[in-house]
Each structure stands twice: as C-alpha cells, then as structure tokens.
Amino acid sequence: MGLQKNKKGQEIDWVLTIGPLLLIIVISTVLFLFPNQSGHAIEFLRSIFVGEFGSFYMIFGLGVFLVSIWLAFSRFGNVKLGNLEKPRFNTFSWGAMIFTSTMAADILYWSLIEWAYYFGANPFGIENPSLAQKQDFASSYPLFHWGPIPWSFYLLPAVAYGYMIFVKNRKRQTLSEACRSTIGSRADGVLGKAIDIFSIVGLLAGTATTFSLATPLLSLTVSSTLGIPQSNVLTIIILVIIALVYTVAVTVGLKGISQLAKICVGIFITLIAVFLIFGPTKFIIESGVTGIGKLINDFFSMSTWMDPLRVSGEGGSGFPQDWTVFYWAYWIAWFVATPFFIGKISEGRTIKQTIVGGFTAGLLGTFTSFIVFGNFGLYQQTHGKVDASGMLASGASPSEVIIQIFNQLPISGVALGLLALAMIAFYASTFDALTLVVSEYSLKKLEAGQEPPKYIRVFWALIFIILPIALIFNETTLTMLQTISIVAAFPLAIIMGIVIYSFLKDISRDTGTGSSSQD
C-alpha cells in the first residue's frame, strides 16, 4: 500500500506521509475559495462542540487529571518504562525537554497578555468589582488554564506511549497502535489509517494556530528592536530562521533536541531574571503566591464551572466556554504528538517518576512564566502605568499591548531582544520534537532505539513551516483553521480516552500475570 523500504530496513508508509498533507491542502483550498460558506459551517460546528458539548471537555479534563494522579501512586506507579538501569536523560535535560516541547512560544505570548483579558472580564457578574477581586481573578485563572489538568492531557498518554514502546515493544509508533488493545486488528485497517490521518491533520491545523498566535508578537519585537519595518517579508524571514534551527536540531536527533532545549531554558531564565531584577519583585512574588493559593482553594470549582446562567440570559458571561473549554480543546489537539515525545524521552523512568516529574517540570516552567511575566503586566495595570485591559477592549492588538508593557522596563531594548531569542528558541525546541514524532508516524516499523531517516525528518520540518507561511497571506483562512483544530479536539478526546483505556487494560493484564509479554 505505497510502502518503500530504506537502506536501514525501515518501511515508509506513504499513505500517512502524503495523505495528511494532501488533505490539509484540500481543506485550505476550500476555505480559501469559499470563505463565507466555510466560515458559517465551521462556526456552526464550533457552536455545537464548544458551546453545547462544553461540559464534556470539563468532565473529561478533570477525569484525566484524577486518573493520572491515581496511576502515579497506584501499584502500577513502580512499573519501569524500558529495561535501562538508569534513565536515558538526566533530570535537568529531561525536564527541559518536557517544558520546551509544549506549546512553543505560546507560553511566552499568553503569560504576557492573558491576565489582561481576565482583568476586564468580570465573569461572575459582580457589581463594581474591587481592584483586589480583579487582581485575584487575573492572577489565578492563567495558572489554572496552564496548570495540572492540561498537563495531564500530555502526561497520562505519555506513559501509555512509553509503555507501548519500551515494555510492549510495539514496532508501530502511531495513535492507532496505542488503541490496539481496544480496536484489535482494525488498527491495521481502514479505521487505524483514518485515526492516524485525522490526527496528523488536526496537528497540522494546531501548529498553524500556534504560529498565528505568537508570530505577530515575534515580528513586532524584531521590528521594534532592530528598527526594521514590520511586513509579511519580515515574518517569513523569521519563520524560515526558526525552521532552519529546528531542522538542524531534528536531523541531529534526540541529542540535538536536548541541547536546544537547554539553550531555550537558559534564555528563558535570563529573561525571568531581567523582570525580577528590574521589575516590582515583591508584587510579582506576592501576587504569584496569592494566585497559587486561590488556584488550590478553588481548583474543583474552576474545573466544573460551566456558567449555566449564560443560557437563560440572566447575566452569565460565557467565560468558561470562551476560555477554559477553548484551552482544554487546544491542549487536546496537541496530544497527537507531544505525549509521544515525552514518552520516548522517559525511557528508564518509572510511571510514577514520569508523571510526578512531568508535572513538576511542566508546572515549574509554566507557573514561573505566568507568575513573573503576567504579574509584571498586572502591576503596570493596577498602578496606572499601562491600561492593558482597556487597550485590548478598544481594539489594540495584543502584540502592541505587550510592547507597551515591555517599555516599562528600564532596559526594554535588552528585554525585547531576549524575548525574540526566547520565542525563536521555544518555537524551534517545540517543533523539532513534533517533527521527530510525526516522522515516526511515516514508518511502518520502528525499533525502540531507532530514529526516522533524516530525509523524512527534513520533509516534515518543511511541511510544518510551509503551511504557516502560506496562511500569512490569508488571515480569514487562518482563523478558520484555528477553529478546525478546536473542533477536531472533540473526536481526539475520544481517541485519547481509548488510548488511556487500552493502556490500563494492558498494564492490568500484564502486571496481574506477573508478565510484560509482548502483543
């Protein structure tokens, strides 16, 4: 079925290599040629999956988080992923790759601006909310949206994939293979191919979303720092530079990815230090501690709040649909690849070490980013220096608002330069991980210690960058693809559920008989 064998004996499956690319081209073409009709159809689907089925995402998210915690501390927690005497990567390298393989520069982008949306939201309909109430809400909800529940969407499937690869010794490293214990031999047929093609298409749309969110900020940052006029040409040059960096890293393999992740963390820590040294350190720390406390205190109410009053028009805001459901869907859309990467680099660790360590590395990274960058901006808002919330409400672009916030630093030029470097490093570190994983989808069989051939990795590296460049010239199409990635999260959540169920079924059977026999 369109298979080619390379010199190392690996078989390339051209259905999964070319099929998703052709499908995304067809979708993009339809969106481009029929923007109005496509827009209505996609918004209708969004209103159903996000507006009507929002409770599904909320219940599913809380459920995945609780299962991940139970699994880590259950009798299965001591099961080791593979036979190595010690983990393949040391703790710092492993933690750095986990943090930097997630959401690319979106972490920096949202930590700088998300609080400003919440500051002016007043979702609970409080009459004349106090400044303290606005501050508490704006400092705690970003931590929730980038906290334990979304990280569980990656870590629970990650141990499932790690178990599949290193314990079960499965030769096919795809989503359909992870479902084998539930769907049986259909993983090799049309159903399996459909799952994998659909998943890769959803991932391609999701990466377009990632680039679309943060690239305007990166372009404006470079423009402001170097005094270069902002244009599509500048944006394309930046994307090409990012592509070159992560293509080089991914051709080197996991060693190259590990080194890039360390560089990324180093730049990130330097930028954090600049904000703490030259910013309102006491305010940042105290707001961070308060935000964490509020998150812990209100965690379950945040996890289940659906704002039912919005349905009857009695003052509800629709905040959880616009933000929490959006985020859960967005994180789910990325589960196609990121957990595979986390599972692959976790060889030699136990399930408990992978889940607990993954939560530690992930939350340490995202919480630090949102506490320091977010609360620096919140200080400017609450002390009358930059009305970021008001600027957004009056139509200013998020990138313009972020630049205004940076200008409050005494060394704003240096900080903007570090921001540009950090965003490029985050982009590259995330996409080299994605490229490696999706390249593995293209292989019919892959041994646990093998990596895909370089030309397949380069092929996917180019695909990941060509689509965003093409979409720069059509903003309407880009917005629609973002919505498609969110809508796609609904069936992907079902697939994630099957993956988790299949894994629990396998590990229960294997440990119950005292064996880790191969399928």
UniProtKB/TrEMBL annotation:
GO terms for cellular component: plasma membrane. Keywords: Cell membrane, Membrane, Transmembrane, Transmembrane helix, Transport. It is a multi-pass membrane protein. InterPro entries: BCCT_transptr. It is found in: Cell membrane. GO terms for molecular function: transmembrane transporter activity. Pfam families: BCCT. The keyword Disulfide bond does not apply. Its main location: membrane. This is BCCT family transporter. It comes from Bacillus timonensis.
